[in-house]
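Many introductory courses stop at the sequence. We go one step further.
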Amino acid sequence: MTASPILPRYSLLLVTLVSAVGGFLFGYDTAVINGANQYLKMHFALSPAQEGMVGASAILGCIPGAMFAGFLSDRFGRRKVLFLCAVLYAVSGVLAAIPRTFVEFLAARFLSGLGIGASSMICPVYIAEQAPAAQRGRLGALFQLGIVLGIFFTLLINARIQGAGDEVWNAARGWRWMLGAEVAPAMVLLGLLFFVPESPRWLIQAGREAEALPILTRMGGAAHAQAELAAVREALGQKRARFRELFQSRFRRPLIIAVLLMAVSQFSGINAIMYYSTKIFTTAGVGIKDAFQSSVMIGLVNVGFTLVAIALVDRAGRRPLLLTGLATQVLALGAVGWMFHSGAGGLPLLLGILLFIAAFAMALGPIPWILCSEIFPTQLRGRAMSIATFTIWSACYIVAQTFPMLNDNPAVGPARTFGVYAFCSLLGFLFVLTMVPETKGRTLEEIEASWPRR
């Protein structure tokens, strides 16, 4: 599949836009359940365990989607698999809006999860393999900006749809519009993919240097293209990396970094809030309409502080942002847990959650995706990212499935639940402090060479 001749000059801007739209769909599909779950519970008369399945059903698709996307993208290319993701998003948006039974709804959400899992693995790799080293952090963070914009607009759209009718109308029809609206951005992604190139690093690895050189030239100029081509040739000219080497001495450390950062990002509780913020606020005594508005505020803060990350990630570096963000998360989550324990609610609770969202958005949200797309060799990057994204979606599933049950269990409740999230953030802070290196301003090949050989 080749790019259309209508746009003979590829631009880094267009490639970045594809990654951002992929992130937007990721965010939209992830957060749409936040508004719909209240009405799905009414429509299908769901138990707490089934309510957890509503949030977790897409994640069950994310896990195999992430696992197989790396192998498929290493075999067939990043761009072809992104086409498949766009189709999955569109089809699942239609099917999730028209289910006759709860099982049909879960099947549609599983299908969307396949697209989320695959795109969450491919989009960071796709942009990292094309961006110049000095801009890679900022451009990679635009994927996360797409995610948080998707989340924000989903929360905003959900609030508007929820306000268009009464509770009976929302339980019958409103949630269908929330889920079906995803088709529009899916078609935008599908259209954009006809005008962007394949990853030049993947092309070089596949023995198609003649196709890769013009792409690299358009991205950064002739000198940049020759330098990148020489660096990739040198890296590929070494002993061919095999998948099992990820578990051996040289790449064991980057694998540990990828897996633990992805796990911490979920066990800090971010998707408990993104999926269930309406439930969290109603648990604290906030009316459902005010809970929807509070959820929109969460999305707005998420967008604003992701912009902070974009501005700082290539200046301050990955490590300082991670350490600052994780330390702030510990304080914010601890405060939220204490407020639930003491019966506080309203504005103080909202401020505590917003502080956590701000800290996450500027650090643990975008940076693990950036780091994971940087620290592995070209020959293994797709499959290594599959392991990383398998980890994040497995952890996300655990959080999404367990939060309603923990929150509603009198022996646990929201106070202890948020205390656990605070403790996981503390462990993440200590891990970054002792194990995670700085990667800003270094080429992918320089980062690969920095891991000690046997």
